[in-house]
Amino acid sequence: GFMNLMINWYLCRLPEVIPEEWNSSKFKVSNTTLRIIAMLGVLASALNIFLNASDLSPVLLALNAIVVIGAFVFAAVRGKHAKVVVSYEKL
Hints:
This protein has five helices and no strands. It is mostly helical.
């Protein structure tokens, strides 16, 4: 749920972050179409998160929040030391 929400949210930035790869991609669509598809994904993911979280007890909800925050901290620390490959199509 939460991972899908993040992927869909940052999908809108593809043309700005990797313009050369985006322009040569076989999946390229107009920026408007990309934003509409991504926002529909964000809404679906947010609804999924809400529905799943509504069934959890407060303790489980808090534990899930701790895990998500821990994942963000881990990613921030690990991201500073990881080698990032932008596109496998150019290897």
